[in-house]
């Protein structure tokens, strides 16, 4: 029998960022720029994810990347030369911003591992196995931008209880026509923000979906996930599916969804990226006039067309 987890090993200390994807939906922009560095206004997607992890108290961040995407590592790490150049040119405010955004390796441990082939999210997580700290692990998909205070990961870690469920996934209610795009929970009950489940199905047809509770890109998982991923056969799309490994451990680890309070944007799609940009711009005084003008023009065009 495994020893009872200590306070140290029960804490969520590691976050895994799967960032190896080629971003084909954003070509040609992603031919030279990793999709995780595409900006929502002036903030790259990866920065939102990093800030969310920092706010949740994550000690080590493991980035599962691809050799062609070295720009991500350059972005994540401090750039002393750039900061010095900016300060020499009297741009101290910009230098401070660059410094604040970069990960301080005296505060946060950084690891990069490579996923050479696109073998699925489950395979990407498995690539990080040797770099995680003891205890449950968090997984953040930067494509899923979740805005709100507190951050989604902070909420999940605060609610995580391995005695109730060792695997926790962020979920949201989706429309009938959208369930085939998600992993979907087989719900058994609710406990506050927790949605208890006996399994999950990856991208079911609408008529076969056990619920409308769809899994989005935040996870807090028992460290047993790595053992369950090893030797797992390919699933949907011929890839190693993380949801298959989670479902495999329902009886032993337990599974629950978590209804976060923030607003989620699917920034893996162009429409989601635009929606996120408009949402942030509409809350920023500097851009309010531009947003009002754009929306006013759209309403006028719609009225004229009627």
Automatic annotation (TrEMBL):
Keyword Transcription, does the record have it? no
In terms of SUPFAM superfamilies, this protein maps to:
Nucleotide-diphospho-sugar transferases
Cite a single GO BP annotation. Answer: UDP-alpha-D-glucose metabolic process
Query: What superkingdom heads the lineage?
Result: Bacteria
Q: Which UniProt keywords apply?
A: Nucleotidyltransferase, Transferase
Q: GO: which molecular function terms?
A: UTP:glucose-1-phosphate uridylyltransferase activity
Q: Which InterPro entries match?
A: GalU_uridylyltTrfase_bac/arc (IPR005771), NTP_transferase_dom (IPR005835), Nucleotide-diphossugar_trans (IPR029044)
What catalytic reaction does the record list? alpha-D-glucose 1-phosphate + UTP + H(+) = UDP-alpha-D-glucose + diphosphate
Q: Return the broad EC class.
A: transferase
Q: Which Gene3D superfamilies match?
A: Spore Coat Polysaccharide Biosynthesis Protein SpsA, Chain A
**Keyword Nucleotidyltransferase in annotation:** yes
| Similarity comment | Belongs to the UDPGP type 2 family.
Q: What is this protein called?
A: UTP--glucose-1-phosphate uridylyltransferase
Organism, as annotated: Roseivivax lentus
- The organism's taxonomic lineage, starting at the top: Bacteria, Pseudomonadati, Pseudomonadota, Alphaproteobacteria, Rhodobacterales
């Amino acid at each position: 029998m495994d020893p009872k987890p200590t306070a140290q090993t029960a804490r969520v200390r590691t976050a895994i960022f799967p960032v190896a994807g080629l971003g084909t939906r954003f070509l040609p922009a992603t031919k030279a720029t990793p999709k995780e560095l595409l900006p929502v206004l002036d903030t790259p997607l990866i920065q939102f994810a990093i800030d969310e992890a920092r706010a949740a108290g994550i000690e080590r961040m493991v980035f599962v990347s691809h050799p062609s995407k070295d720009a991500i590592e350059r972005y994540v790490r401090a750039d002393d030369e750039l900061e010095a150049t900016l300060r020499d040119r009297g741009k101290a405010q910009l230098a401070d911003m660059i410094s604040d955004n970069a990960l301080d390796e005296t505060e946060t441990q950084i690891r990069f591992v490579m996923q050479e082939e696109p073998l699925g999210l489950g395979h990407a997580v498995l690539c990080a196995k040797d770099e995680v700290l003891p205890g449950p692990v968090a997984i953040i998909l930067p494509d899923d931008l979740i805005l709100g205070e507190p951050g989604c990961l902070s909420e999940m870690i605060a609610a995580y209880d391995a005695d109730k469920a060792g695997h926790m996934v962020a979920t949201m209610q989706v429309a009938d026509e959208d369930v085939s795009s998600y992993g979907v929970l087989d719900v058994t009950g609710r406990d506050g923000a927790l949605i208890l489940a006996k399994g999950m199905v990856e991208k079911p047809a609408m008529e076969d979906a056990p619920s409308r509770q769809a899994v989005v890109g935040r996870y807090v998982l028992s460290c047993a996930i790595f053992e369950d991923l090893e030797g797992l056969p390919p699933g949907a799309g011929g890839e190693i599916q993380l949801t298959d490994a989670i479902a495999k451990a329902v009886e032993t680890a337990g599974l629950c969804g978590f209804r976060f309070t923030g607003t989620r944007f699917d920034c893996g799609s162009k429409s989601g990226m635009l929606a996120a940009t408009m949402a942030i711009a509409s809350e920023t005084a500097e851009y309010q006039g531009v947003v009002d003008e754009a929306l006013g023009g759209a309403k006028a065009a719609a009225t004229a067309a009627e």
